[in-house]
Amino acid sequence: MEESRAATVLLVDDNVELLDLLARSLQHFGRFTVVRAADGVEGLERALTLRPDCIIADVRMPALDGYQLVRALRGDPTSAGIPVIMLTALAQDGQRLGGLLSGADRYLVKPVKIQDLITAIHDTIGISQTERDRRMRALVEGYDEREERGLA
Amino acid sequence: MNLAASSLTEAERAEYLSYERQRRRRLLSVVVPFGVILTGIAFLVATLTLIANPRQSAAVLVNDALTLLLAALFVVAWISLRRDHLGLASSLVLALGGGGILLTVAVACFSQGLTPLSLIQVASLSTVLVLVGMLGGLRTIIAAALLLSAVTVSILLLAPRPGPLDAQIGPQLPLLISVTVTYQWAVAASMIAIWATYRQTLQSLGVAFARAQRLDTLKDQFITHINHELRTPIMTLQGYIEYLQLGQSFLPPAELDAALAKAGRTADTLVTLLSNVLDIRRIEAHQDIPPAPVRVRDALDAALALIDPRYGGGALRDLRLQLPDDLTIWGDAIRLQQILTNLLSNALKYSPPGSPIAITGHVLPAAASAVLRRGPTPAARELAEISIRDYGEGIPPDQAPLLFNRFVRLPRDLASSVVGTGLGLYLCRVFAEAMGGSIAVESSGISGEGSTFILRLPTAPDVSISSHDTASAAPAASVAPIPSPVLANGRPPAAGRG
């Protein structure tokens, strides 16, 4: 909150009510500049044109879901480094793993408190590409290990 | 008992057949080793006797060889059972057990003649029927009983009878034959009865198990689904509370008021979800409500007043209404209203904003009513048909039959943002059937052609024939925009197509 330039956060969610609440909250209490998108396709377009400092995306959305959105972002060198937080109602372990494996930096299961979301945004904005690569390696190795033990 | 003709699903039939296989496998796994051991011991004893006393008649040698063959074939049956060739194992056991007993009795009777011992052996032929009854079906039991009767009659008529016994048996032969054959058929009849009840029990068990399993899966899906559906409104509600707490010192009062109103609306959404779930329990309590005449128009007006304006997508829609004013059904006003509310809110939710919705109603001609009538409808009652049509995405024809089951939502809807519990149409079906009616859907599954939900309910006893005329002579559709009522105290619409 002490940054000189307000960080831009792109919110992607097809639930209008929640989108509205989150946008207002992040503006008022997080001092972020907030851009909204109502589905995955719009989210991808905004992300590629605006290059936000952080993206918060729902998973279940029409047209392009959250997993596809993150994979598309990570596949493009110009957007590969944008921090992404998945904010979703899909609470099962497999779904969480799927979210992280698709390239998201954080996977938050609804309901999440606004202050916790703001903290998560600050944490995620600071993340470096090296750190992201390290986490993904750890995740994949952990996944392989679990698979070997028949737990995945 | 006819599996094909009854209303079993593939899964239920498969479940029954797997039970039947398991039953036969268990039976065989007892009978086959027993057969191997018995024939093995018999062969061993006969061979040892032959070694100790080699001067025996040819019949004894033949018997020993036959016992060896039996033992060997029982081993083959054992191997096929281990390899899960149940058909082969059953046939072998039937042929060996049944055929073996028949053959040894026949050989003994014809070679040694009728003696008290061989007469007991003839009486014991019924054990063949017990074996066949355990492993075979109706036809096998009857065929075995016929064969057994033929063999028994042949033995008693044709086998040589040594002197002293011939004098006793001769005069009583007709009685002896009829009593023996009667006993055999009595055993056969008992085995058929056991087979039939066993089959019936297994079938019911299989069906019950398959249904319980399916319900279990549906409940799991439902819990996962409702868990997902609740998380977003709960986060929104919690979020607004936090928003009000954090912002009360510096946000303008208008902003705070708006947040409060939104929190209230979110709480309404949660109540809708919950009330749908609770409706299920209410239905399952089977509370019967005495029927009364209900004017369809009144129920429709009440339903329209409850429709959540949010589902309208903000656009006014054409409501094409073609409903005789005096169309009256025989049922319950609240239930009819609930059905119409559900169907209308579905029509709004699953069609693009601004697209029309058509509601038509008429009394079916007597002949059609007679064909379509179901449930506890008085015999002479006609059926009223109320159709609600939207012009949305439609329903894929292969998924249409699933719609009216509980906890069912179309795969397409699960992936979309349309809120639903998978209970709305189940409630419609149960309510319609409770009133002696039915509900069905017609849809090509082509986007834009939409779907038509057809509700058929018995008409009130005093309905006049003039409703036919009113319906058929109805003027061009009266067009009225759907009112945008406020969701006040009424029950919000049940959600979820399917």
Could you explain how this protein is built, in words?
The complex is a heterodimer of chains A (152) and B (498). With 152 residues, chain A is α/β, with parallel strands linked by helices. Chain A is 51% helix and 15% strand. A five-stranded parallel sheet of chain A has the order 2-1-3-4-5, sandwiched between helices. Chain B is an alpha+beta fold and 498 residues long. Chain B folds into three domains: 10-213, no CATH class; 217-284, Helix Hairpins (Orthogonal Bundle); 292-481, 2-Layer Sandwich (Heat Shock Protein 90). In chain B, β6 (438-443) and β7 form a beta hairpin. Chain B is elongated and about 120 Å long. Mean pLDDT of chain B is 78; it is low at 1-6 and 463-498. Classes of the chains: A alpha/beta (152), B alpha+beta (498). The A-B interface holds A 14-15, 17-18, 20-22, 24-25, 28-29, 60-62, 65, 89-92, 109-115 and B 224, 227-229, 231-232, 234-236, 238-240, 242-243, 246-247, 251, 255, 259, 262, 265-266, 415-417.
Topology (elements, then pairings):
The complex is a heterodimer of chains A (152) and B (498).
Chain A: E1 8-12, H1 16-30, E2 33-37, H2 40-50, E3 54-57, H3 66-75, E4 84-88, H4 93-101, E5 106-109, H5 114-125, H6 129-148
Helix pairs in contact in A: 2-3
Chain B: H1 10-52, H2 58-82, H3 86-112, H4 116-123, H5 126-135, H6 138-158, H7 163-247, H8 253-284, E1 292-295, H9 296-306, E2 318-322, E3 328-331, H10 333-349, E4 357-363, H11 366-372, E5 383-390, H12 411-414, H13 424-434, E6 438-443, E7 451-458, H14 466-472, E8 478-481
Parallel strand pairs in B: 2-4
Antiparallel strand pairs in B: 1-3, 2-8, 4-5, 5-7, 6-7
Q: Number of helix segments of chain A?
A: 6
In terms of quaternary structure, the protein is: heterodimer
The chain pair with the largest interface is: A-B, 26 and 25 residues
End-to-end C-alpha gap of chain A: 39 Å
Largest sheet of chain A, if any?
Answer: 5 strands, parallel
Q: How would you spell out the order of helices and strands of chain B?
A: HHHHHHHHEHEEHEHEHHEEHE
Please give the largest β-sheet of chain B: 6 strands, mixed
In terms of DSSP E residues, the strand content of chain A is 15-25%
Number of spatially distinct domains of chain A: 1
For the record, the count of structural domains of chain B works out to 3
Strand order of the largest sheet of chain A: 2-1-3-4-5
Mean pLDDT of chain B: 78
Tally the helices of chain B: what do you get?
14
